User: Fold these one by one.
Assistant:
Number 1:
Amino acid sequence: MSRKIVVAGERVYMKFFDMKLFEPKAKEIDAEIVPFRDTDEQKFKTVIAAADALIVLDRPIQEEHFAVMPRCRIVLALSVGYDCIDLSAATKRGIIVSNCPSYGREAVAVHALTLLLAVHRKIKLLMEETRHWRWDYNICQPIGQLAGRKLGIIGLGKIGRKLASMVKSLD
């Protein structure tokens, strides 16, 4: 294979533990996925030196990294933000930096809704009771109904809009 796509960052492998997910698309462009899980900085620089593309999650990519990647054309941050990537160093070398702006939208909205429902139903209080082998549902009274309640969402970006649609479906 003529092209190399280096995938680096320990959390990448927690989310995509099987790199086979990327392989069909890589083969379409005659590329090889090169996983990198090590934290050793010198080994990382050696591996990325041959990279045509770099995919990272929570791994800083600075001037010193761009300096050893003469073939690299794109760095993809598998996250909403790309603040861990030195944009001026990438721009200076004509390397495209991209991110995943919709990444986590549903997961974060679901988590927010889960926490809201847990507070509404006083789950923490009931969990504490059951840890002590007690069960008295009356300690969390009153629990009101959700119907007719209003939720204020500060910020209607992608996550806020997703949460709003989820909450609307509860009515």
Number 2:
Amino acid sequence: MTTPQRIPDRSDVRALLATCRSDTRTGIRDRAMIYLLADVGARPVEVLALFPADLRRGEAPAVRLWNVKRRSEAERDPERLPAWEQRQLELVAGWTRRSPAEALAKRERRELEIGLATADSLDAWLVERGRILGRRHGVARPVFLTTRGSRDALAELQGRDAHKTEAGAPLSPRALQAMLASRSRKAGLGWTLTARHLRRFAAVREIEGGGDVRDARRILGHRSIATTARYLDDAGLHRRAARRELLDRGI
């Protein structure tokens, strides 16, 4: 029997956001990522694989996520993609340990509306992102990037050549998880809030807002409605409704 995952409440997420200073680029970036994770329950790879072309602004802001867990029947040639999509494909292939062709064969996107607070935080980060990149072409780079250069500290200690990275490099899923761990400590939560916790938070918010298990499944990108029902069972929320719908729809 598995132990239910802890579900953060709104006070946990607010505490996390409160650690993101609005007068630093890192704080502005991290705030946008946390808002996005909590709003649509995206997986780390899905957030980090966002490119500017995946953002929709206007009266109904939305994001288009790369649904890395679902299979697509479409078989396409990676070399025929636009340059920014080729770069996106390279990043996802590296993070998921697949070849570009395998990653493309499994690609399926979903477009989700986002809240105004999430959209505003993204807009604030895009302004800072533009300042980081300057004249460099930002269309072919992910939305979320490093805010300053860094050097391999371990290599320096061992006397090896330390590769200096420039600001504006892609973030890794490990860096995102490390950011959440650091923010959790700064917020004084007493536990580490992860991207998986925020996925469950998003599912609970969807149900509390009047949605059903199928709506939660859509935003989370699950293949099976049973997986979504387990998320809701972990929260102890609308358990009977989730199971009723599961029986009505079939597995």
